[in-house]
Amino acid sequence: MAPPPHRRALLLLPLAFLLLLVAPPRADAWGKEGHIMVCKIAEKYLSEKAAAAVQALLPESAGGELSTMCPWADQVRWHYHWASPLHYANTPEVCNFKYSRDCHNSRGEKGMCVVGAINNYTEQLYSYGKKTSYNLTESLMFLAHFVGDVHQPLHVGYAEDEGGNTIVVHWYRRKTNLHHVWDVSIIDTAIKDFYNRSMDTMVEALKMNLTGGWSDDITHWENCKNKRSTCANDYAIESIHYSCNYAYKDVEQDITLGDDYFFTRYPVVEKRLAQAGIRLALILNRIFDGDEADGIPLQVQ
């Protein structure tokens, strides 16, 4: 059976046609560093089979590391304009996410949001090792990126302010917008102030938390009814919760956000980066290990 039109479009539209499409730009989810960190965490929790499949699918330019390709989906957005709505989902200014109501693009096409994209590319990757018309290298790179995206709280934000993009704020002395604060500024400030400007040091700290303070939580981070569909719906529900209770809370136009906001929101950013990495590994392990994955304890390789 042929895939639905929106699924075929995700990978099979000719590049010349894609370049003619126009979509409004949005801020990227997590900056480059955030996406790299998510995938560095995931790489350490891949099963042997999953790691081998990822290696086989990665382009030569990746140098054998999934993390080098995790910002890719942002880097190609000017070519793949149709993919812009796949980086986020919006709610009608309510603190809950409903797939049937919220997962669509500006033309009302269902499934064209970050949750639909995660489920779609996961389904494509299940065809690994079989005859397929999908570009599974791109499927992998899109999936790795979008799992990171759905964990950035404001990528499940309000439609009215475009996930905080139209809320102008000052991050200490620098003028920016609320979305960018969560994409980039909180992470950059933490790397500078806590980790001697080293992203790798921050990654190691997150990994230590995963084997320490968060170790009891990991088994609960993937719980949902339909594991084949990746639990992405649950991740979006979590993100709108964090958006309402942390990202948007006490914020108004032209406000200056400083230490109070940073120190109360940074723990949320840390946790979401770690959850994204663990969950990406779980998804890939399930794809490439099949039903065996649920019986294999998640552990650092």
From TrEMBL:
The source's domain of life comes to Eukaryota
- Reaction catalyzed: Endonucleolytic cleavage to 5'-phosphomononucleotide and 5'-phosphooligonucleotide end-products
Report the enzyme's class at the first EC level.
Answer: hydrolase
Q: Where is the signal peptide?
A: 1-29
Q: Which keywords annotate this record? A: Disulfide bond, Endonuclease, Glycoprotein, Hydrolase, Metal-binding, Nuclease, Signal
Q: Which GO terms describe its molecular function?
A: metal ion binding; RNA endonuclease activity; single-stranded DNA endodeoxyribonuclease activity
**What sections of the sequence does the record tag as coiled-coil?**
none
GO terms of biological process kind: DNA catabolic process
In terms of Pfam families, this protein maps to:
S1-P1_nuclease
Q: Which CDD domains match?
A: S1-P1_nuclease
List the InterPro entries: PLipase_C/P1_nuclease_dom_sf, S1/P1nuclease
Which Enzyme Commission number(s) are listed?
A: 3.1.30.1
Tell me which family the UniProt entry assigns to this protein: Belongs to the nuclease type I family.
Question: Which PANTHER family does the UniProt entry name for this protein?
Answer: ASPERGILLUS NUCLEASE S1, ENDONUCLEASE 4
Q: Identify this protein by name.
A: Aspergillus nuclease S1
What organism is the protein native to? Answer: Urochloa decumbens
Organism classification, top ranks?
A: Eukaryota, Viridiplantae, Streptophyta, Embryophyta, Tracheophyta
